[in-house]
Specification:
The structure is a homodimer of 473-residue chains. Chain A is 47% helix and 14% strand. By secondary structure, chain A is an alpha/beta fold. In chain A, the strands form 3 sheets. The first copy, chain A, has a 5-stranded mixed sheet with strand order 1-12-11-7-10, with helices on both faces. Chain A has a 5-stranded parallel sheet with strand order 3-2-4-5-6, sandwiched between helices. In chain A, strands 8-9 form a two-stranded antiparallel ribbon. In chain A, helix 2 crosses helix 16. Chains A and B meet through helix 5, helix 6, helix 8, helix 12 and helix 13 of A and helix 5, helix 6, helix 8, helix 12 and helix 13 of B.
């Protein structure tokens, strides 16, 4: 037999434990069920392809925007060495992509390497908690901080308020002209007052394409500017995403991981009533990506659906769990609680460190079987053991494996999930790209903060409070 | 009118939006339903009280263990100034309590204040990811690190393997006798080989009471030793928990927040079919407590229940969401997706910082309504707006408010949730204190790592793999 050397560059999908043969007909899929539904997968693929060709949705094109990638790298090069902190001011889709990349490539806080101008840290101000913002500012040196406000609408209350504070902090410490040189704005080209603000103050600005929403924007300037400033290899991220994009257009379920996993997840969700999906990475560096995925899946696929007959609520609740850690926190529920979940393990094929456990025996059985083995083996074994124990309790689960955890594979993984989500949206016959459900809360916030033009919502809120006043429980 | 000065020391519970009057009969509770179920609450209280009097469960006694608290403080004092990092090696209940306290009182990484021997950082090694452990060790100076391995069983595979690595790292850099002085073990008094190891190496050791399980152990040495070493005020934590304990034994639903919230959560879960509970703190510092709660609720209340008639799966899936951040990530699903959730907001009454937004107007409407206001107002408004928008979509929700976010209130909050969980366990007629569902996974792990005595599980795992080999999907 000829040994073929396979390059370590792929994402594999193992759906075996979604099968009825493993978890029973009530909770798993039969080959027949999958075969019967294949046309839905190919319809989703061709329908989505048509939308993309009409330019409705831009994310599939992003990995190929080499001009933008070059511009971002050139900007990062031009400021390199002048800062030790990149401070992103953004929330939701304007924050999670940068975090997924940074956590994925440099690891989660608090165990990143020491920060310096050669290895700047990334601080993401994605909340309006006053103590959080206060501590973050205290931890940064304005003379060594680059600020990146990110808002597609240019009007997000949380981002505007924190940016006003950070802008003032920079001005007070550096003066106006120096402060302006330390800000790079990411926003829409033709809408929103953040853009006007940037023009007025002559700030470096990168634009977000109109046809790319926040949760699909990791490969626009939204994710790439912070990543490049933090010194991450954005070219490799985009190359992995580009190769994945090629695979995602293939009309072949065995090669198109996004389409196959979309089909199986859609079936197990809708036919087997799994209302929760647990995204279960076994790698601390994928924790950011799991939170990024949690937004992608929830906002894209949680919708009020109206058809001719009725109005109803659609959605599968995503949960982020971390292996092996959450075996000691959630797996009791996962194995013995209601069988209402599907589990997606995210595995790393080849670890860059082995985590060698010392060879010396201690004389204690609870320790000595581990001696001379490695953490990389242990974490894989823990995942396999958990998958087996869930399967034997008839809990459907599947596994995505990245051959390595590097920029190329991370870019590929994120792009794969975006396609998967778009495909499931088509299968569900919903719009995966809007978010009408958050409007009312935003309007109440504007009204309660006294923004002009929201009197109607102020009255509605007051009527709600008046009703509350009469209620006793 | 006479102004009465109320001390800022309490946790308030507002159940209004759980009411049928606010969210409709299908999703909310009527006064009659609550009145009819009150006997179940008082039975749960008296039943649990009897168990505690028989010494079955120890957590209600913990805040009153002043001798232990003194011993821990004395130990922390004796080593003070000699280290800048406390390295906990523990997983699940051996990690989450310390994190809830540290995050709650000093804030989440990466925005804690600079670390030093006067303000030591807490690094929690709660996984076996080799890259995570490698980076963590690189970030620590062995001459300035105190290591705290925590395992009640003294045999947890993840903790033993990482401890072997950390122990070796200390020995290699400091030599045996110095290394021994830098370790404080937390384990059971009379069981487990970690205890024997500690005796052999003459290590400082603190014991975990037999009748306190991991997820209820934050006020044993498990949570208090790391907290005290990190310089947190463990006396204040225990005082808050002690006052809460007093309230939790009151046979009065209006004063006993734990009992009232247990009753309403049990009713809304079981009668209104809310299979998911979203723990939704509006404060970055409560993010650790939300993850701690997620274990408490999942492991305690996710169980196979057997009664005379049948065997079935019980459990409500807890989710941690962070306000206002997750409004831009999850609220689209929460408002428009399936009405299968109950939301528990966790609010802070009085913030220690206001987060003043600069007064100067920019000339842009999207910014200027915020000018001169504060983040502390904005984050409250965001929470109120979100609660209103969920209520108007008939999504039941309630709010816990801590008057302040300090050690006293944090101790009270954690103790309140432990009582609440114990009470709900009684109402469900399940054992809230065991975790049989994780045993099989542990045994598979031992078997696959080659530990002696697990051949039976090795065969079972191999049979499972053999079945998988024949399955195609």
């Amino acid at each position: 037999m000829v040994a073929v050397k396979t390059p370590l560059m792929a994402i594999h999908f193992d759906p075996t434990n979604l099968s009825a043969a493993m978890v029973g007909d009530k909770h798993g899929l039969t080959q027949q069920e999958v075969a019967d539904s294949q046309p839905a997968a190919f319809e989703a693929l061709s329908g989505f392809k048509q939308s993309v060709e009409k330019d409705d949705y831009g994310f599939p094109h992003l990995p190929f925007k080499t001009k933008l990638i070059k511009e971002i790298k050139a900007y990062a090069k031009s400021v390199a060495g002048k800062y030790d902190t990149v401070c992103v001011v953004g929330i939701g889709g304007s924050a999670l992509g940068a975090w997924a990349l940074d956590c994925g490539l440099r690891g989660p806080h608090p165990v990143q390497k020491a920060f310096s101008t050669k290895n700047p840290r990334l601080v993401i101000l994605d909340n309006v908690d006053p103590g959080f913002i206060h501590s973050a500012l205290e931890s940064m040196n304005p003379a060594k901080t680059l600020v990146v406000p990110i808002a597609k609408s240019g009007a997000t209350a949380e981002t505007m308020s924190v940016f006003l504070i950070v802008h003032d902090w920079l001005h007070a410490k550096l003066g106006g002209s120096k402060a302006a040189g330390r800000i790079a704005v990411v926003t829409s080209e033709n809408t929103g007052e953040l853009k006007e603000f940037a023009v007025k103050y002559k700030l470096v600005t990168f634009h977000i394409p109109k046809n790319v929403g926040g949760r699909f924007s990791v490969l626009t300037a939204v994710g790439l500017v912070p990543a490049a400033l933090a010194g991450l290899d954005i070219s490799a991220v985009c190359k992995g995403a580009a190769e994945m994009t090629r695979l995602c257009w293939l009309e072949n379920l065995e090669e198109n991981v996004a389409l196959k996993s979309a089909l199986l997840h859609w079936l197990i969700w809708t036919k087997k009533k799994k209302s929760i999906q647990v995204a279960f990475p076994y790698a601390n560096r994928l924790w950011g990506a799991a939170f990024w995925f949690r937004q992608l899946w929830a906002e894209s696929l949680g919708k009020v659906k109206k058809d001719k007959k009725r109005v109803f609520n659609v959605g599968q609740t995503p949960i982020a769990a971390l292996g092996a850690t959450d075996q000691h926190s959630q797996v009791q529920l996962y194995r013995e609680g209601p069988n209402d979940k599907v589990y997606s393990f995210w595995a790393v094929g080849k670890w860059s460190e082995s985590g060698k456990i010392p060879k010396a025996k201690t004389g204690y059985a609870s320790f000595d079987y581990l001696a001379g083995q490695s953490l990389s083996k242990l974490i894989d074994v823990e995942r396999l053991a958990t998958a087996a124990s869930l399967t034997l309790a008839q809990r459907p689960n599947c596994t995505f494996t990245l051959d390595k955890l590097d920029a190329w594979h991370l870019g590929a993984l994120l792009q794969m999930f975006e396609f998967q989500t778009a495909f499931v949206g088509r299968m569900l016959e919903i719009d995966a790209f809007d978010q009408p459900g958050v409007e009312l809360g935003k309007k109440f916030t504007f009204a309660l903060m006294g923004r002009e033009g929201y009197d109607e919502y102020k009255s509605e809120y007051e009527a709600y409070e008046a009703r509350r006043a009469g209620v006793k429980l």
